[in-house]
Design goal:
Blueprint (H helix, E strand, L loop, with lengths): L7 H6 L8 E10 L4 E8 L7 E7 L3 E3 L3 E2 L6 E2 L2 E5 L4 E5 L2 E3 L7 H7 L1
Antiparallel strand pairs: 1-2, 2-3, 4-9, 5-6, 7-8
């Protein structure tokens, strides 16, 4: 079965669904300039024992796919940047952090 053959109800089941769980305890383990390390004790089911979950906190980011060219001749703009964690020059689409308080994502994208 292809995605086009799914009913609306079946397609809805394939979407991510926002849910919350009881956070029994929260700790900030470390805070850096761009990311932080968080730790929560979370109860995944009512009455169940809490489980430990560690995760990074990030301000968010935007990316821009800039294209030009007509049908069959499309080109995507890429920029080449050094990325220290992988020790390489990478080709990537323009992107940037949502790290200015109150800045709308579309303005951050225009900045990029």
């Amino acid at each position: 079965m292809s995605l086009e053959e799914l009913s609306a109800e079946q397609a809805a089941d394939l979407r991510d669904a926002k849910e919350t769980r009881e956070v029994v305890e929260h700790r900030e383990l470390w805070r850096g300039r761009v990311i932080g390390l968080e730790e929560d004790l979370v109860r995944l089911s009512p009455g169940g024992d809490p489980v430990l979950r560690q995760y990074t906190e990030h301000p968010g980011a935007v990316a821009v796919v800039a294209m030009r060219g007509g049908d069959g001749r499309e080109e995507v703009l890429l920029e080449r940047q050094y990325r220290h964690p992988v020790g390489a020059l990478l080709w990537e689409i323009p992107a940037g952090l949502l790290d200015i308080d109150g800045e709308a994502p579309h303005l951050a994208a225009a900045r990029e």
